[in-house]
Specification:
This protein is mainly α. Helices cover about 45% and strands about 10% of the residues. The chain has 6 helices and 4 strands, in the order ααααββαββα. The strands form 2 sheets. It has a two-stranded antiparallel sheet with strand order 1-2. Helix 2 crosses helix 5 and helix 4 runs parallel beside helix 5. It is globular.
């Protein structure tokens, strides 16, 4: 299990490096009874376990070597802030609104021996993870994958999912679960309005 936050909601990870972005988004509790915030204050061990698996999955998927990331208690609020910024950015791209400004996250752009540009994260802890996540978000936007990463519109849920529908029209991470719940709420509201 390389993407524990995403897989705990029975979701399929996004392709390539975008899975790391999705993974960070899914560290938030998503309205499920057993769901906890993987980046909560006082849960450094849980956050480190998550980061170890997520970074390993990202490194394997992107052909990088062994990447190690050590988090500190000071990193957790920074990662939650980044997660919230990403959620707002996805809402802006999905529904419009004010632009989101991210905290700085340096990257190293290098030219490899075959002439290809590479983007490498820089820093340590939350700074390194922010660098990796924002670089992958930028690459996903350049390859037109960013628009398919969405937040479930069932507000109690709010899981991040990759929309694999042909016309990119998905709004719930699960049509059976969250979609049915939304339709049921709308039906009840219509009935109340008629009464």
């Amino acid at each position: 299990m390389n993407w524990p936050a995403t897989e705990r909601f029975c979701l399929t990870p996004a392709p390539g490096g975008l899975a790391l972005v999705q993974e960070l988004l899914n560290t938030a509790p998503a309205g499920h009874p057993d769901s906890v915030d993987l980046l909560a204050d006082g849960a450094l061990d849980r956050a480190q376990d998550w980061a170890d698996l997520a970074v390993r999955g990202w490194a394997e998927g992107s052909g990088r070597g062994d990447v190690r990331l050590a988090l500190t208690a000071e990193d957790l609020p920074k990662l939650r802030c980044l997660r919230d910024q990403l959620r707002r950015a996805l809402a802006v791209s999905d529904r419009g609104g004010d632009a989101v400004r991210f905290t700085s996250a340096p990257v190293v752009v290098a030219l490899s021996g075959n002439g290809a540009l590479t983007v490498e994260p820089e820093g340590a802890g939350a700074r390194w993870l922010a660098s990796a996540v924002l670089a992958e978000a930028l690459l996903a936007q350049a390859s037109d994958l960013w628009r398919r990463l969405k937040i479930c519109r069932n507000e109690p849920c709010a899981a991040a999912f990759y929309d694999r529908s042909r016309n990119n029209s998905g709004v719930w991470h699960s049509v059976r679960g969250c979609g049915n719940a939304a339709h049921l709420r709308a039906c009840r509201e219509r009935r109340r309005a008629r009464s």
